[in-house]
Amino acid sequence: MPRAKNRVAARARRKRIMDMAKGYWGRRKNVYTVAKNAVEKALTYQYRDRRARKRMFRRLWILRINAAARLNGTTYSQLMGSLRKADVQLNRKVLADLAMHDPAAFAAVVKHGS
Fold first, then answer.
1. CATH of 7-113, one of 2.40.50.100, 1.10.1900.20, 3.10.270.10, 2.130.10.10
2. Residue ranges of the chain with pLDDT lower than 70?
3. Phi, psi values for residue 24, rounded to 5°
4. Model pLDDT for residues 27-46, shown as the tens digit of each residue
5. Residue in 33, 39, 34 with CA at minimum distance from that of residue 19
6. What angle do CA 12, 14, 20 make, to 5 degrees?
7. Domain locations along the chain
8. Which of 98, 100, 101 is nearest to 110 (CA)?
């Protein structure tokens, strides 16, 4: 009796990799073994950079809050410390958005915190 190879599953597995490699350049898009390596590396970068993006945005928010805080006569660390003591429950994303789009509201938050 011949050995069953389950060709359907093997084809589906290769097809999934090739579909993920659409738009790649050169042999990365049409040669399975090359595409497989490229897709694996891309997925690794994707996983890593989902976490790196969070760190990057936090850094950006802190920069914006610090710049706006200094315009209001304080520093980032002093502002965050006073907001924590005053129990103001605004996260860095919201504070940075206020600093950029509504400086008057940000100034009011600074005043309330100190």
1. 1.10.1900.20
2. none
3. -75, 165
4. 999 999 999 999 999 999 99
5. 39
6. 100
7. 7-113
8. 98
